[in-house]
């Protein structure tokens, strides 16, 4: 009996080998897409469901019994453990370098450990290495004693293999996963001329297919559908442009942004991310990609790539410098040091990249080029500074389109928005525009329950042949994650949407330079892992940067389904 207990002690640590083997089988059917791509490129809100955790083996192989902190030469089992390690290497310890020899185990666990040691001895025999006959006889007796338990373990492994094979045969793809987001939003405008607006009920669907071929790359195919009209801004006190009241797009909801497809499902963009070495990652995109999809915006809780879980407005999600331009091109992120990231990018405006006509194409039409340096000073605090240079052909520039700076979008001339160079004087729409923009961002999270972010952006458009202007925009955002319960989010935004401060081109029509404050509050209630409800409001104190206009309040309740 004593000898049986001795061998029970010898083989018991090997149960970890079987445990690791059993836990790894289902993972074989999962995607190979890695989490580090999403984290490095600030794409977590979009790619969470395309990630596959790959934890390190929780047990470390022991090659010397002296590595075990809780086994001393004076222990009665010390020589037995040392012999097992030296002869067969059939022992493992815990990550804290302990053996825990007094820990109890079941007969099933013992059978699993014994099976692992048998496999090790079989490998030694196959390699013609010496195995003592006495040990073989003892193990044979143990096999007979635990025959039923070993058969049960084998049956469980066979069952897992069968289930894994079924999943592999019936899954959509071994390399591709689908993420979806459906947003319903009920909204209305109150105050000022809001009486001529109607309460709207709008929806938008986004489907994204993520495919990895190597485990380190990522091909994204993004589809969308929605019923929001092209003129997504509520008809506030609009700017008079040639006798036509151009509705302001201030306060545009994130649930409205870019959602008009006339009910059809359309391709938003294709992009392919891939690493070059350990520090450099490229993203090549075609369609209507935007810089903030691959470059850090330092607003982690409120910027969710317009998927329906962040700020209720487009303006509240990020600095407008990231939305200058948008289309086809390439971006790159280079990790200079562990805390310093250099980001660059070039996007041909809109859908002009595939157009071979003069004034279009990848380099002959509208474009935007961006450079940014992001400094992660600590786990709690980050800074970033960015610069963009962009070009907009005649009729394709407005100060505020969906709360963004715009160049190169074909609809910008019809949505000039709050006081814009194009809106102040329609004749100026005939001039191409070159824009240089500068921005600084920060993010600070002193504790898990509070985060503060902000930005300041200064843009300097030059209407070729007419004059120069200055456009400013800035904001602070406050996030209180998990308020009330896990997954909830209380958010506030206080800032000024892009507004024109000066223009040297001799406007025949004067314009006001009042501060157009944007005040926003929302609370996301997480019903479960897949459904959230977000009521909120946006208060605009000086629509079209004119205090003579009545204050506007946009109220909404948003429901988001994610799968």
Overview of this structure, please?
This protein has helices at residues 2-11, 15-24, 35-40, 44-47, 78-88, 107-126, 133-145, 147-170, 361-364, 421-424, and strands at residues 60-61, 92-93, 176-190, 200-211, 218-226, 239-241, 244-246, 266-276, 280-289, 327-337, 340-349, 367-376, 381-392, 397-401, 404-407, 433-447, 450-463, 467-481, 489-503, 517-526, 531-540, 552-562. It is of the alpha+beta class and 563 residues long. Helix content is 19%, strand content 37%.
Which regions contain 5 or more consecutive residues with pLDDT less than 50? 1-61, 237-247, 400-424
Mean pLDDT: 74
Provide the β-strand percentage band. 35-45%
Number of strands: 22
SS-based class: alpha+beta
Q: What topology, given as strand order, has the largest sheet? A: 3-4-5-8-9-10-11-12-13-16-17-18-19-20-21-22
Helix content: 10-25%
The Cα radius of gyration reads: 31 Å
CATH fold call of the largest domain:
Porin
Shape: elongated
Give the helix tally. Answer: 10
Counting structural domains, the number is 2
